[in-house]
Amino acid sequence: MRCVVDTNVIVSGLITESGNPRRVVDSILSRSLTVLFDDRILGEYREVLRRPKFRLPSSEVEAFLAFVEEFGEYCSGHWIDVTLPDAADLPFLEVAVAGLADALITGNAKHFRPKKGRHNVRIMTPAEFERRAN
Question: Please, which residues have CB within 8 angstroms of residue 61's CB and are 6 or more apart in sequence?
């Protein structure tokens, strides 16, 4: 499965030892889920995962990011005529469209409901991903 994974899922999956976000991260690390990303997404992962409030060891963050870069799939996102509630989420949708992702996995599905325009990307919560994986 090839998916774009929202930062909130990555953070939750790395800071907890169980639950659906953790299963998404485990699927990435076992290579049963290929993460689609571009420089903007990788930059957001890097910036957010390094925030002191998450208390993630820098070695763990760097190892995870290196794994995504090596085993994920770089995909240049292309502009799409969609307005989302938060413009900062648009890179995730653009990469999902350009990379023909099977889904965009997020804990905030409502953030990907367009205020203007349309898209055909399947928006999936970590729980929906887990149900589909089993």
Answer: 14, 46, 49, 50
